Every structure is written in C-alpha cells, then in structure tokens.
Amino acid sequence: MVTALLALSLTVSPGYDEARQALAARRDELSAVWRRDRAKARAEARRALLDYLDDGAFPAWSGTPWAFYGTTTTPKEGAIACGYFVTTVLEQAHFKLERVKLAQQASAYLVSTLARGSKVEWLRPKDAASALADMKARFPEAQLLVVGFDLHVGFVRLDGDRAAFCHSSYLEPGVVTCEDPLTAGAFVSSLYVVSDTLTDALLDDWLLGRDVPSVLPKRPRRS
Question: Is the N end or the C end of the chain the one with fewer CB atoms within 10 Å?
Fold first, then answer.
C-alpha cells in the first residue's frame, strides 16, 4: 500500500465522503465489539483507519496546495498548512480533537497530544536515513507515525520495509503529497519529535467518541 501512496493521483477522489461515512459506520460496529473484546476492537480499528487513510484520505488530499495560513477543510479547494493537514485529516477520520488550536501550536505539542501519554521520542540523527531508521527502531510495531520537524509536521506511513512521508509540503511544487522520505527535502531536519499515531489510548478515544485532550503550552502564572 505504501508503494501506491507514492504515486497518488492528482484528481479528486470521488469517494471521499463515502469513505468517511463508511469509516463512521465501521467505528459504530467496533465500539460494540470494544465492550466485549478491547484488543480485537483496537486491532480492527487500527486496520480500518489505515485502510481509510491509504485509500481515501491521502489520495483525496493529494495535490491540494500548501499555504502558510491555509486552513481549508475540502480537498483540492483552497490551501492547507502542514499542521492543519494533520489535524484536518484526523478530524475528518472522526477523531474529536481541537483541529484549529493544535494546528497552530509548535509541532511537539501536536505530537504529544496524539501520543496520548505514550512515549514521545526526540531524535537528533545525522541525516534523514538515520532518522527514519531510528524511528523504525524505536517504534517497531507502529504503522503510522506523526513527526514534528524544525518547521514542519507530517505523517510517516510504515508498511514493512517501505515508508511514505505524507504531508503538506512547503517545498516546490508546494502541495499535499506522499513521497519517499529519503528523497523529500522537507524530511531533512535537525530535530525529529515522534510518536505513534495509533496508540491503544487514542484508538479507545476514537472508538468511544471521546474528546482527545490537547497538550498545549502552559500559560505563565500571573503575579
């Protein structure tokens, strides 16, 4: 599936709304399963979300223009910034999160929010290849990472030995794309803040329709 992501069509996916509706229906089914068998429900929810992203969300958003202040919620219409791409994709996958507030934060806060209390790794590798290898080593079971960079944020979709970097790229041609992280200019960074996007806790939030608590900067106390 990652290979297909690297060659996404630039046409609007006509089934995006249908895919979202199907995902919502699947979530309703799995929420009932969760009450009987949490491990099974989480495993099937993880697969349903990955299939939705691979076949629905990422193809639909591919080619949507990037803009620093882009906030569109409709693929191929308007423009979208990197943080808004991450939060909008997840919100439209029926995660209840603060789409706007999180998109406006430094990427570490968005990563920490999606980690839902699980580990967040701060990596300073020598190059992009080392960064990707380190991510795989530290998250050996993960299939979807959210990664914050010096000035950027995006998803890394992992499928065996293959990887796709799905993000709203600020580099030419400046569009949403899924590309090889090892050849993507936007994947180069002095710092990588990484977490698994599909932890058990976040899947439980999704299955039960719970709000995802935001991790935000602490306000200074007034004297």
Answer: C
Domain ranges of the chain: 2-207
The closest of 119, 75, 118 to 204, measured between CA atoms, is: 118
Size (the chain), residues: 223
Query: What does pTM read for this prediction?
Result: 0.93
- Cα 137 from chain centroid (whole Å): 19
Residue 49 predicted with pLDDT over 70 = yes
Determine the Cα–Cα distance for residues 167 and 217; give it in Å rounded to an integer. 24
Which residues share a beta bridge with 165?
156, 179
Q: What is the pLDDT of residue 9?
A: 41
Question: What pLDDT shows up at residue 100?
Answer: 98
